[in-house]
Amino acid sequence: MTTVQSPPAPPTAIRPRAVARTGLYAVLAANAAVVTYFFTEAGFAANALIVLGRLAGLYGALFMAFQLLLVARLPWLDRRIGMDRLTSWHRWTGFGILWTLLAHAVFIAFGYARSSSLGPIDQIVDLAETTEGVLRAVVAFGVVLVVGAVSGRWARRRLAYETWHFIHLYTYAAVVLAFTHQVAVGTTFTASSAATAYWYGVWGVALGAVLVGRVVLPVWRNLRHQLRVSAVVPESDDVVSLYITGRDLDRLPARAGQFFLWRFLTADRWWQANPFSLSAAPDGERLRLTVKRAGAGSAALRHVKVGTRVFAEGPYGAFTALHRTRPESVLIAGGVGVTPIRALLEEVEGHTVVIYRVSTDRDAVLHDELRELAAVKGAALHLVTGPVAPDLLAPRELARMVPDIAGRDVFLCGPPPMMTAVLRTLRDLGVPRRQVHFERFSLAG
What we know:
The chain is an alpha/beta fold. The chain has helices at residues 16-42, 48-70, 75-81, 83-114, 120-130, 134-150, 153-156, 161-168, 170-185, 187-190, 193-225, 296-300, 338-347, 367-377, 395-401, 416-428, and strands spanning 228-234, 239-245, 259-264, 274-277, 286-292, 310-316, 329-334, 352-358, 380-385, 409-413, 436-438.
């Protein structure tokens, strides 16, 4: 499938990612200032430890709301920052929640213990038994500890994604418990009508963003577009392309380089969502994904029947021509990472160099399409084959293929080891960081 798109907007000096990132930082800083203001307006307790504990708890609540915004999958943020970076920020915000809530619990326990005959642990137990809302806070903190533990790299490597995701959903229960705790005992929450309205607004916006981005928008789009499998085309022994059709696909805001979370609504697969990139630029009539067999789930796609209903969440990702900063580009693909690169080649304008890295010629799926499309676009295509060592994309080799690479945008997609090596090479060649575009799609799901 080869469709050459109309030229997109030219590169802009104002980087969409920088605008979105600055906006998020500004929102967080402004809310931190507002929280601090309402805290000081409510007055201080006589015990300094209790003061610190309450302030830490407020910042923990703000971090919780901010974390919900990061995972809400709002299209405006996702297209400018990318799900992988938002997920990474979500992870670090989670550690911020963990430490601020831990500080809240420790300072409050020791602060109240100073004015009673109880030890810190007994003091927490006493507060949970006698003060409305404290038990809910203890349960919420326990949930945060469990989610934090399973989010560590050691645990993630040993848990199936579905198991990790199911445990992670309990974070929403922790959010609700923390909010009800704040309503019940939060002095800042009840200090003034303005403070009360502010906190209701913060939690309403955060939870509303999740509801809209992760439930309402995907359901509405799928009801509108009625996606179905229209063709299943083997590309090689272990690679297959699926063509998806539906209604009004010209109104689906998908771009080359983006991906969806796909659910094929069969009896054995409806519950499983997998992130696959579009392997051709959307043309308003159909979508295409190309999948390499990497397990039982992806292998089963070869046997999906034509007419199968599809539920797709997305489009997601910032790996698009929206982020171009230069008139000319380099597209570097490794293995099945060629799928978004092949789609991008249809959309990018200006002179383009495509570099496709594979072990053998047999592994070069979609190479015929790339060659045909490169001829139409006037692009240079390099097929690089050979073993992992020596590095065939080392600085000398890459500079030989693209002597002016430092003056081009570079779009990179491939296996993680290859991407790490190429990113190091690009630094050695002096390619500015703002001109390097990549997305670690494995983080999306």
